[in-house]
Amino acid sequence: MGITIDCTEIGARYGEVRERIVAAARRAGRDPETIRLVAVAKTFDLATVRAAVAAGARDIGENYVQEAATKIEALAAEMPGRGATPLRWHFIGHLQRNKASRAARLFELIHSVDNLRLAEHLDRAAELCGKILGVLIEVNVSNEPTKGGITESSALDLLTALAPLEHLRVEGMMTVPPPTLHPEASRPYFRSLATLRNDLASRGFDLPHLSMGMTDDYEVAIEEGATIVRVGRAIFGPRAARAKRTGKES
Length: 250
Fold this sequence. Notes:
Blueprint (H helix, E strand, L loop, with lengths): L7 H20 L8 E5 L5 H10 L3 E4 L2 H14 L9 E4 L8 H7 L2 E5 L2 H14 L3 E6 L16 H8 L5 E7 L12 H16 L6 E3 L6 H6 L4 E4 L1 H4 L14
Parallel strand pairs: 1-2, 1-8, 2-3, 3-4, 4-5, 5-6, 6-7
């Protein structure tokens, strides 16, 4: 299942990304420990994910529910005694409502909630699982018609609508800027999301996390306040054609 790469390279790549996160955080006067690195493993096989975990990865991101389920179940069987360092699984792709029940069982954090109906499905599924499910609101700060996510002006209304859902915990927001060859071009979009979060916080919404920044621009995102960065290619290398950038990749 999936792509395998030379696992001996993963530890070095993961370490380099961690070092660059630390440097970016220090440039911004931030504590590097407040930034979570999600290793995006979609299309890579179980052996590759094992190598990332051995290198220190504890947050794993996936875009496809079925593919993720195979890896999650296998690693759970292999690592029953993880104790204080469990793996945290993040769903970062577009989530269809008919897969919400399974996603609620498998993942700790859903990064891509952008409508009330999906949230209601997740809330019911989380209740059946006996858990409180963490979610992020996806915001389309660039207003690109091909991307998911709500508009900035809709964020307050959606957060207000989600407030009664007792089995969801809205932990923050996520965005993906337009593709660019220059990381600095992403900065205004990251800044916009941080500004929106701060405005909503002033209205009483506790939104500690900003999920923004991928392989090409995660350092800029950290400088603008990202608490979660989603990095795949810099850790695992190139993906197969199936994984061409769709708006939530890494």
